[in-house]
Amino acid sequence: MSPKNLSEELFKPRVTHPETSTLVRHGQPSRPLSIQGFDNPSHPGWYRIIDRLLWSWRGLAPQEIAEVLARIAASRMTRSDECLLDTVTGYRRGNWIFEWSAQAAHWQQQASACEDDARAGLHWLHAAALYSLASYPHLKEDTLAEQAQTLAFRAYEEATRRLPGEIRQLTFSVSEGAAVSGFLHQPPGVSAPYPTLLVCANLDELQCDHYRLFHDYLAPRGIAMLTLDVPSVGFSGKWRLDHNASFLHQQVLRQLDQIPWIDHTRVAAFGFRFGAAIALRLAYLEPGSLRAVACLGPVVHSLLTDAGRQAHIPDMAMDMLASRLGMAAVADSTLLTELSGFSLKLQGLLGRRCPLPLLAACWPNDPFSPEEESRLIVNSSASGHLLKLAPAPAMGNFERGIGDICRWIAARLAV
Prior knowledge:
Blueprint: H1 3-10, E1 25-26, H2 52-57, H3 62-74, H4 96-113, H5 117-135, H6 143-160, E2 166-175, E3 178-186, E4 194-200, H7 211-218, E5 224-228, H8 247-253, E6 262-272, H9 274-285, E7 292-296, H10 302-305, H11 307-310, H12 315-324, E8 329-330, H13 332-340, E9 358-362, H14 371-379, E10 384-388, H15 394-413
Parallel strand pairs: 1-8, 4-5, 4-6, 6-7, 7-9, 9-10
Antiparallel strand pairs: 2-3, 3-5
C-alpha cells in the first residue's frame, strides 16, 4: 500500500479504538498531570509530556506545535478523562493521533507536489517528525499509533533519499530466523569506511527522530550515525524489553566488522535517558567494540529503584515503562520490582571501573536523572567527563551541550 493510500485509510474517522491513556493501568492514578520538559514550564492538563523544546530542536516550528496543541485543547469531543486535554476518544478531530497525523499529511502533500528534490526532502522530513509525534509515546497495542509510526518511517525514507548524504537500511541477524533493522546515515563528501556513532534512543523515540543530530553535528565531522530502535519499539517491536536491555545493540556491534561502510575500530555509543542504560551496558559488556560512551540525562539507577521518585513523574512515563515490559495491568509495587532489575548499579556494572572513556551530561533538578547519577557514571571511568547543562536559556544551552558531546565523541573517534 502506498504512503498516500495508507494515510487516506488512516484518516477515516473511527470511534472504536481505545484511547491511548487507557491502554495501561497501574496502581497509583494520582501522579502529577504534567512535568517540566527541557523548556522548563510545566504543562498541566495533558496526559503526554509536552516537550516543546525537544520537538522544536528536531525541526518543528514552535508556532506549528502551538497550533496543533490548540486544536486538541479546544476540542469539545468526549474525553476518556475530562481533566486531560489529549484524551479525546475515537479517531476524529481533537484526538492526538488524528491532529498530528493530519498536520503530517499536509506536509506530505507539499512534498509530493514539490518539483525541487532538496525542498521535497525537507517536507518529507517534516512529515516524518509529525507522524512520529502522532505515535508518541508509542505504547504497545495502540493500533492507530502503530499506523502513524509506519507512515513516519515511510516519510523518513522518502526524505533521506533526497537529502545530503546517503542512508542505508541494514539488517542484522539476532537469532536463527530473526533479524533487526537499523539505519546507517553516511556523511557526504567523505570516503567510507566511516567512524560511526551508535545512537541508543530513549523509550519514547523512533529512529527517524535523530536526523538533526546527524545533519548538524555528526556529518560535518565526517562521522556516520547508526540508529536502532529500543526493544518493543518500531523496527525492534517484536522483542520485549527485559533486563538484558542491550541485547539487540550487542548483536549489532558484533556484526559491524561485516559492514563495509563502517570502520568497526572507530565506533562510539550515545544514549539519551533510558538509552543511556543501554549504552553503558555496552561499555561494560562490549568494551572491545567501542572507543567511548556518552549519555545525556541518564536513567540508570535512581528512577528505576526509588518508589518516591517514581511517584513524582507523570503517568505517561510510568505507562510507557509498563507497556515496554508487556505489563499493561500492574500494581506499582510489582512494576517497581521489575524496574529495579534494570538498574545498572544493582546489576553489578555501574560503580565498577569501566575501561572506556565515559561522558555524562545532566540538568540541575532533573526529576528523571539526579546529578549524582551522572557523577557515579564519570567516576566509574579513569577518563570520565561530567557536563552540566544550565537550564536557561534552554534551547541555546541544549544545542551547546549537544555540540560539546559531539566534539568529545569526535576526539575519541579520531585516528
